[in-house]
């Protein structure tokens, strides 16, 4: 049985970009796309003149924005014109994320506390307007093997990585 990629279908990509995927069979025993094709799709261009599709005027809430992928996501969204609500428990990291960017707004928050999440989401809506996009990047993963982790550490991982995502999703759903 041959696998086919989607044909000439527009698909939304990261940070509001759009890319086209051409129809062709997947290589025998291989993935449907090479790493280069996947990377190019992530940098997809709009149909109009090749410029990235802008988020100008949109509000994007990014958790874990104080470092790592959350910080990179916040910068990328800010670079394409979004008003970014940068959310993290790490206030120093948030300050670095927002440095030099007028459209990155700092909202310190512990995503494991549902009342803090609800309060921050309400403040974001009050200060920036309705939330158009949410990026969940708040996560922790200690380097030690699971068998060496105490139960408290496992619970903390679940609170941040799972419960934090649930709390933010619930709080940001349209009314």
Explain what the structure shows.
This protein has 175 residues and is α/β, with parallel strands linked by helices. The chain has two domains: 1-53, no CATH class; 59-172, NAD(P)-binding Rossmann-like Domain (Rossmann fold, 3-Layer(aba) Sandwich). The protein contains five helices and six strands, in the order ββαβαβαβαβα. It has helices spanning 35-42, 68-79, 91-98, 114-128, 151-172, and strands at residues 9-12, 18-21, 59-63, 83-88, 104-108, 133-135. It has a four-stranded parallel sheet, sandwiched between helices. The N and C termini lie far apart (45 Å). The model is unreliable at 1-51 (pLDDT under 50).
Write a brief structural summary:
The chain is an alpha/beta fold. The chain has helices at 35-42, 68-79, 91-98, 114-128, 151-172, and strands at residues 9-12, 18-21, 59-63, 83-88, 104-108, 133-135. Helix content is 37%, strand content 15%.
Task: Describe the SSE topology.
Elements: E1 9-12, E2 18-21, H1 35-42, E3 59-63, H2 68-79, E4 83-88, H3 91-98, E5 104-108, H4 114-128, E6 133-135, H5 151-172
Parallel strand pairs: 3-4, 3-6, 4-5
Antiparallel strand pairs: 1-2
Helix pairs in contact: 2-3, 4-5
